[in-house]
Amino acid sequence: MSQGEIVTGRPMAGWRALGSELRLVFTRRRNVLLLAGLAALPLVIGIAVKLYGGDTGPSLPARIAGSGMFLVAVSFAVSIPVFLPVVVAVVAGDSLAGEAQAGTVRYAMILPVSRTKWLLIKAGGVFAFVCAQVAAMFLVSLITGFALFGVHDLTLLSGDTVGVGEGVARMVGIACYVILSLTGLCAVGLFISSLTEVPLAAMAGAAIVPAASTVCDAIPQLAAIQPGLLTHHWLDLTTFLFAQPDWALLQQGLFVQLAWVLVVGSLAWVRLHTADVTA
What we know:
Blueprint: H1 3-27, H2 29-52, H3 60-64, H4 70-79, H5 83-102, H6 105-110, H7 115-149, E1 154-155, E2 161-162, H8 164-181, H9 183-193, H10 199-217, H11 247-274
Helix pairs in contact: 1-7, 2-4, 2-5, 2-7, 4-7, 4-8, 5-7, 5-9, 5-10, 7-8, 7-9, 9-10, 9-11
C-alpha cells in the first residue's frame, strides 16, 4: 500500500477503530453487568418507596410519591457520590491498562491511527459508556416513576408547580449535567490507566480520586481548594428542582470539569506519547 493510500485511509481507519472500541466496551460482560446494575437501582428505590413509603419531611425521597419524576432526581443524587464514579473508574481504568496487560497495544499502534487519535478513541469509548449508563438510569427512573406513582405535575423544592413537559425537561437537564460532571473522572481514569499494566490497580486508583475529593470537601480547613475539587459541584444537580435554576453555579461546576479534562487529559497525552508502548 502506498503512503498516499495510507494517509487517505486514516480517517476510515479511525472510525473503524472507534467502532471496535465501542464494541469492546459494550460487549464486555463486566461492563454489561455494571450497566444493568445501575439501571436496576431506580427500580429498587421506586419499589421501596411504593411498598414502605418515603420520609415525612421535605427530603427528595418523600416527594417521589407525589410525582414519579422525582425518582429521576433521587436516583442520580444517590448514585453520583458512589455508584456512578465506581463504574466510571472501572471502565476508564481498564481502557489503556487492559490493552497493556493483554499485549494488544503494539497491535493497536500498527493501525494507521496516531497516538493522539487512539487516546481520543479510548476517551470516546469511556464517554459513550457514561452516556449509556446515565441514559439507562434516566429511562428506568422515568418509566418506573410514572408506572408506580402516576403522571402528575412536578412540585419543585421551591414550592412552585410545573407541568409534566417542563418537569421532564428539568430531569433531562439533570441527566445531562450528571454526564458532564463525570468527564473529569473519565480523564483521571484514562491517565491512571496509562501509568500501569494492571487494570485492577488503575481501577482502584481512579476510584480513590473522587473518594479523596469527597473527604477533602468535608474538611473546613481545606475551604480554599474545595471549589476546584473534582466532586465539589456534583450535587448541584438539585438546582434544577428550584423555580429558577442557578445557572452560574452550574457553569462553575462545568468549568471545573473542563479544567480537570484539560489538565489531566494533557498528562495522559504526554504519557502516551513518551511511553514505549510498542516494546
